[in-house]
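Task: sequence in, structure out. Protein: Gamma-interferon-inducible lysosomal thiol reductase.
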Amino acid sequence: MGSRRRVSSPVLSLLFSHHPLLLLLFLITATCPTVAALSSSNFPSVSAGASEDKGKVALDLYYETLCPYCSNFIVNYLDKLVDSELISAVDLNLIPYGNAKIGSNATITCQHGPMECLLNTIEACAISVWPDLNKHFSFIYCVETLVYEHKYAEWETCYDKLGLDATPITECYTSGYGVELELQYAAETNTLQPPHEYVPWVVVDGQPLYEDYENFISYICEAYKGASLPNACSALSLNTIQKKKRNTRAPVCYGEDARKSFSSRIRSAITSWLDQS
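Result:
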């Protein structure tokens, strides 16, 4: 008949007899999980849910919620990608920060005012709370559709429309975690190379598309390195897209610094022309 082997130590026995609290501490640490194992954030990080499939094409959208050109792109262009079979070849990353600025005490000021800061944070929370693309994109699509229709004050109706529980988003926002997410997005946006000049700022495999962003499907197809080209990238449809969209200049929301730089270039050009005249 087997029995558990006991390990005895005269030193430990003497130590524990004089210091019973040490015995209690020893028993707790021997039988309980570590604090590190028990502690975990209530919310996943910004990068949670991102695929590590190296065969996919990375598609990053840097945007702000109340820029009309961002909502137009999400509602009328990006939605078609998410609903197509091509999405299986894409890692889509949404970064709702845009042309916002960070001031003293890590306060964030948004280009289109406090409501944009609210919705940027809400959409950041949605990405974190619901890392599944179909779930958080459905919510963001609903909110941005209301922005597109100039009804963004009704954004909370998206919970009922989609049958989603508002509680985790509310907790993310009120706890301050949403601001932490926005600060992470700010760092990511502000370290872009080349720096973003406006939004929507669409990047395919690290390469910005500038004002040709509406033609993003063709860039995805060109960057795709998988074994078989998706049907959406067939030569006929790709050539059609390229002929229609290449060399076009889609509208954008310039940031304050970019507008100042653009105005300076215009003034410089006018001054130079007058000097030559």
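The chain has a mean pLDDT of 80.
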